[in-house]
Amino acid sequence: MSLKQIENEVIACARCPRLVAWRERTAAEPPRRYRGESYWARPIPGYGDPEARLLVLGLAPAAHGGNRTGRVFTGDRSGDWLFAAMHRAGFASQPTSTHVGDGLELRDAWVTATVKCAPPDNKPLPEERDACFPFAAAELAALAELRAVLCLGKFAWDGALRLLRQAGYTIPTPLPRFGHGAEARVEPGLTLIGSYHPSQQNTFTGKLTEPMLDAVFAAARRAIERAA
Fold first, then answer.
1. pTM for this predicted structure
2. % pLDDT > 90, the chain
3. pLDDT the model gives residue 226
4. Beta partners for residue 54, in sequence order
5. C-alpha count within 13 angstroms, C-beta hemisphere, residue 227
6. Residues sharing a CB contact under 8 Å with residue 24, sequence separation 6 or more, in sequence order
7. 154-166 vs 126-142: helix crossing angle, rounded to 10
8. By C-alpha distance, which of 54, 56, 45, 47 is closest to 151?
9. CB atoms < 10 A from the CB of 108, how many?
10. Exposed, middle or buried by CB within 10 Å (0-12, 13-18, 19+), for 171?
11. Which domains does the chain have, with CATH numbers?
């Protein structure tokens, strides 16, 4: 399946009634700062370079970020941190991602989320995670040049291990544990890298700093260049 076909199927999805209701409710009842804006309020497909060697995998869109703008990690504080770091590392054409059509282009990178709809409290249910799993699996299969997966948070790390196992990769034993800067080699020829999620909970408290985020993108760059 092509990335365009996956995008179309993601956008049309209504498999999870709770998530459908939540994404539409947040659009109908936005906070004051977004009143008057037209929300996307649909599932969010991945975005980036179809020839990407790096996959950046997050948890789910933000209710007033991707769910509002229609592009993953766009229009929220997490995206501010993520794309600034990707720009510094040479994976993004600019350090900001504010809205579709803002000129952002990704280079050698594809950004997506394990779950494609914004969930209440950023906590998808297991059945919602499983319903979305085939979309992430299809993206992984369509990105033929992948050499590294950078996982933003433990939810994404666990999702990536499941995706890679299903795709036929050999996962090391014991099972690699998540941590910021953790790396695991899966065969054939792919490196899994862990990072704390650039959520406000982590960035405001100093659990994740800009140098820490830069370090994991530098590790991703080394991994894809080693595999070249």
1. 0.96
2. 97
3. 86
4. 109, 148
5. 21
6. 41
7. 60
8. 56
9. 19
10. middle
11. 3-226 (3.40.470.10)
